Amino acid sequence: MIKIISINYQETTEQAVAKPQSAFKEMPEVTQLDCLNDAIFDLEEMREKLHNKIYPVFKNVLYGDQNEKI
Q: Which runs of consecutive H residues, i.e. helices, occur in the chain?
């Protein structure tokens, strides 16, 4: 396994930045595209899991318990 892309978090701007490594740049473009598609799929899956985990907490904090009787 070779490292082809690194994701770095910039604390000052609170942004994550993806940086292609030299191994990625040396790959044929069709392979680069395939790698990007694979990585995007994995990242979207990670995002979905995290969203499903934390969204109910934020929803409850923002809107309270909607089933609560007044």
A: 22-25, 29-63
Distances in Å between the alpha carbon of 48 and those of 34, 61, 64, 70?
21, 20, 23, 33
Q: Which single residue is written with the structure tokens 């942004």?
A: 15
What lies within 8 Å, CB to CB, of 15 at 6+ separation is: 9
Give the predicted TM-score (pTM) of the model. 0.74
The string of pLDDT tens digits covering residues 17-64 is 999 999 999 999 999 999 999 999 999 999 999 999 988 877 777 777
Q: H or E segment at 6?
A: strand 5-10
Range 10-17 average pLDDT: 96
CB 19 within 8 A of CB 6: yes
Domains of the chain: which residue ranges? 28-63
